[in-house]
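Students often ask what a holo structure prediction actually looks like on paper. The answer is less mysterious than it sounds. You provide the chain, you provide the ligand, and the output is a string of discrete structure tokens encoding the 3D arrangement of the protein together with Z5A.
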Amino acid sequence: MAGRRGALIVLEGVDRAGKSTQGRRLVEALRADGHCADLLRFPERTTEIGRLISSYLVKEKNLEDHAVHLLFSANRWEHVPSMREKLRQGITLVVDRYAFSGVAFTSAKDLSPEEAAERGNFGNERYENSSFQEKVLQSFYHLMKDKTLNWKTMDASKSIEDLHREIKTIAEETMQEVQNKPLGELWK
Ligand code: Z5A
Ligand code: MG
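The corresponding structure tokens follow.
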């Protein structure tokens, strides 16, 4: 309806928590119910900045930590104008990782050499090892203390279907709650 804005729904969590699966399911379900909803993911690897990030993640390229952090940030900023426009038009955005991953992953980089040496074959990309992911998780818990953001915690060990139902209910409530609120800013 005219004047009603969309909700910004961000899915955050450690590696393989099921964010992409749930993001896709949520957008499909919202659209099937007649809502306007789009799926975004970060890093968005298709832009020039995104391709650089992707080559870093797959270990084709080595980049200095601060520079990588700023590239992830720039990759979000290059999408902010279109995101704000869509939200204003009433399109709900389901976002697979956002600025919270930016903080959590960079702040987890103070791994001790002992911990780093324990890295196993968790995955092939950078950051995909259990001690690093544990630090990321602790950083997410820290970020969740910010009560100005409407955090909801999911038990990612539940079935895809159960999680989908829970997330859809929360998304619908959130869309109702924010529809007449002005667009805010994330971290000034
Ligand atoms: N990063 C960063 O450093 N700074 C930043 O600013 C940002 C990101 C934005 C790439 O992210 C890396 O970038 C990431 C953070 C860093 N590094 N790590 N780790 P990415 O999002 O492109 O990729 P990813 O984080 O590695 O996540 P993922 O592999 O995409 O995981 P997921 O999306 O959470 O999971 P999934 O693909 O939906 O599911 C994984 C598998 O589990 C799949 O086979 C599913 O079918 C299965 N699955 C899903 N849910 C369930 C349930 N409930 N039960 C059983 N099986 C399930
Ligand atoms: Mg994913």
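The mean pLDDT is 92.
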